[in-house]
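Section 5.1 Outputs to date
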Amino acid sequence: MGKVGPLLTAFDSPHLSESNTGLGNVLFQIASTYGIAKSMEMEFFGRHVFEFSQKLRIQFGFHHGETIFRNCQNNSTSPVDVVVYEAPNHHKLFDITLVSKIFQLRNQSLLTQGYMESHVYFDTYEKEIRELFSMDDASKTYLQTKYPFLFDPARTLIAIHIRTGNSIVEIEEKYYRKAIQFMQETFPTAEYVLFTNDLSNTLVQSLIHSLPIVHQVQEREDYLELWAFSQTSHAICCFSTFSWWGSYLIANPQKRILVPQSSVDYMKNKYNIDEQKIRTEYYTPETQIL
C-alpha cells in the first residue's frame, strides 16, 4: 500500500514566526492529502508534519505535536520516493491533475508540494477531518477554565476575526459594519468573541465599541485560538486560512459564516480564475459573501 502526505509550505516559509506558524495553510495541506489518501486506499504520510512539529517546538517552544497535529504524524520515519507538485495558480482550487499524478504513483511513498486549499479534496471525509483536528483533553480543560463562556450552551456566540498588518486584503470597515449589522439583526441577543492580532488598532477599537458584549481570546499558541473559535456558533471572517478553519470547525449545523467580497475579487484577479470556482471550491456552501 502506498502513502501520501504533505510537504508543508510553512516549514521553509520566510514568514514563519512565533506569531505566524501558517496553521491554516498547514491544516489545508494535511486535510487535502488525508482526503486523497482515503479516496485511493493509501496510508496518510505524516513524516513532514512530525518534522514541522519538532521545528515549532525547538524554535518557539510550541506544542503542536502533542495537540492539533497529534493524530497526523504517522509513518514519520518512512522514506520518501517521490514529491508531486500542485499545478500553478491552483492554490485555492481543486487540482485534478495533481490527483491524477498521485493515482498513477499510488503504490509509492509520496509527498505533495502545494497549498491545496480546497475543501473538495476532503468533503467526503468531513467527520474524520473534524476528529483529526479535535481538541485534546488538556487543551479543552485549559480553555474551559480560562474561557468558560465558550462552553455555555445557553449563549449564542459570534466569532469576529480582524487581522491587520500581514493580511493580503486589508481590513475593510464597510464589510465589518455590514457583517455586524447582519448578525445583530439575525441574532439580537448574541455575544461576540474577538480574535485579532492588533487590539490597539483604531478601527478594531471602533468596531468592538459598536458591539453589546465582547469577549476576547488571546493565546500564544495559535491552535488554542483556533479551537476557541470553533466553539462559537457563527462567524464574521476575514480573508485568512485561520478564519476558514475556525469557521469550518464550528459544529453548529445552522451556522452563518460571513466573508468579504474583496477576498473573492483578490483570488479572481491574482489567479485569473472564475468567481464561481472560488465560491464552490474554496468557500463552503454555508459561506455568505458580503
